[in-house]
Amino acid sequence: NETLNEISEWLQKGRAPKVKAAVTKALEEGIPASEILEDGLLAGMDIIGQKFKNNEVFVPEVLVAARAMNRGVEILRPYLVEDGVETKGTVILGTVKGDMHDIGKNLVRMMMEGKGLEVIDIGVDVPTESFLDAAREHNAKLICCSALLTTTMGEMKNVVDAVKASEMNGKVKIMIGGAPITQTFCEQIGADCYTPDAASAAEAALKFCE
Ligand code: B1M
């Protein structure tokens, strides 16, 4: 589809206003929001990811592409998230300490909100203690940690250990995810659950909150 290609192209160029316009156009053409996300925005981000890996583009280009991605996703939000769903539980979500990647986390948030969960998004570069403090403050049943770097995924073990050493042991569960994370890693660090994508993260979170 031409409009979806346009979205991908503008995203790769990091042109947020153009991405927003093309996403709006795609919606007007009746393309489902999930398709715009997968075959437009994420397709473009995939290409940037490949080029980044091959040293064909660098951090500044990836950063503007990521910004454009987040702007595009914002337009899709109302179409991906159902309105007026009753709150089914509260979840704490953040990207671990040392890690600034937030696109995956933002998608996870959106899908969770779509399932009627209240998501307390505590951002990126989140220290261990902040996950615990937020869980206490909001009486959450689930802490969700995202990491995109092999150098930061170890932070997830700190969160697991801190919860186990606290009064919340057994009361708060921990879900982990992000590109380098695997089921094996989840078992190694003693987290409660690993999910590979935003949709399964939302489904699993709902189960923990029931
Ligand atoms: Co960075 N980066 N980056 N980057 N970046 C990667 C991750 C990398 C794989 C690129 C590469 O070399 N191929 C590589 C990591 C290598 C490694 O660790 N083995 C890398 C690197 C090295 C770096 C820097 C160190 C580069 C540098 O400075 N030299 C640096 C680190 C900064 C830091 O965090 N301290 C850096 C910086 C950046 C930018 C700031 C430029 C930018 C981030 C902007 C932003 O997020 N606002 C960026 C980006 C965009 C990427 C790539 C290109 C794309 C990541 C992304 O958003 N993907 C990435 C390459 C790639 O992945 N192909 C790369 C789309 C997103 C939807 O996918 O986040 O995986 P993802 O989320 C998925 C699932 O993983 C899952 O759901 C989502 C989809 O459904 N998921 C969860 C995510 N979190 C979950 C949590 C859950 C459950 C599921 O439960 C809690």
From TrEMBL:
InterPro entries: Cbl-bd_cap (IPR003759), Cobalamin-bd (IPR006158), Met_Synthase/Corrinoid (IPR050554). The keyword NAD does not apply. It comes from the Bacteria. Residues 88-210 form the B12-binding domain. Residues 1-88 form the B12-binding N-terminal domain. Coiled coil: none annotated. Keywords: Cobalt, Metal-binding. PANTHER family: METHIONINE SYNTHASE. This is Corrinoid protein. The lineage of its organism: Bacteria, Bacillati, Bacillota, Clostridia, Eubacteriales.
